[in-house]
Amino acid sequence: MRLNDGNEIPPLGLGTYPLKGAEAEKAVASAIDVGYRHIDTAVNYRNEEAVGRGVAASGIPRDQIQVATKLPGRDHGFAETLASCERSRAALGVDYIDLYLIHWPNPSVGKYVETWRAMIELRDRGLVRSIGVSNFTEEFLTRLVDETGVTPAVNQVELHPYFPQAELRAFHAANGIVTEAWSPLGKNSAVRSESAVGAAAEAHGVTPAQVVLRWHLQLDSVPIPKSGDTTRQKQNLDVLGFELPADEVAAITALSRPDGRLFGGDPNTHEEM
């Protein structure tokens, strides 16, 4: 998928939260071995070092793997962001970060625009290839663009059939922002147990998880499912060989719930440092 800065991102990536240590390293190396080329982490996941080791252990040339990480709330601010990026590059063992995101806007702190200016600086220096945000609302996105003139390439948000974010996705599409989805399969197996998902899985001879991930792709959402199991990693990646008809996409989208958020992570009120 092409980003608004001219770079491209694979249609599906590997999430790594809450994997840590040897488990995270093994999962990343395994995922790259089966074909993943976009690996997502964050400072607050406390696994950047392990993810970096997994990338290095894969044996795949660095320029063929896209590594994304996220700036924590405690490092908001211009100078703080520059320093935090240096720590992330060192932890990951990379010369540059492919996709660098502000993890949460933390509006009570009031520094996300200043932080965004630092992200632009990092991109201009070549230390970061693409810059974006995570958990930003339309209001926060609009302020970034209005005050800096630079539109985020990506907004990574909670998105799954119980919380499909139709209005935000439409705003992204209208403004050239790629939607990435964290927790794309929802929590535990609840979404995958829904009859609309099960019926589609049976119709196409695939797993319920594959149906939900295919639903994401057809919404122009880039899902980043987490899995440390090689078999599930392969299954999650194998979603390009079938297509959901419009009625199945609509039935899955209709699973939306007013209380669909997994933990009440409203970016207007939920903040992480």
User: Rounded to an integer, what's the Rg over CA atoms?
Assistant: 18 Å
Cα separation of the termini = 31 Å
Tally of individual helices: 10
Q: How much beta, percentage-wise?
A: 5-15%
**Unreliable segments of 5+ consecutive residues:** none
Helix content range: 40-55%
Across the major sheet, the strand order is 1-2-3-4-5-6-7-8
**Overall outline:** globular
Main sheet, how many strands, which sense, barrel? 8 strands, parallel
Strand runs, count: 8
Helix-strand makeup class = alpha/beta
The average pLDDT value, as a whole number, equals: 97
The helix/strand order is: EHEHEHEHEHEHEHHEHH
Give a brief rundown of this model.
By secondary structure, the chain is of the alpha/beta class.
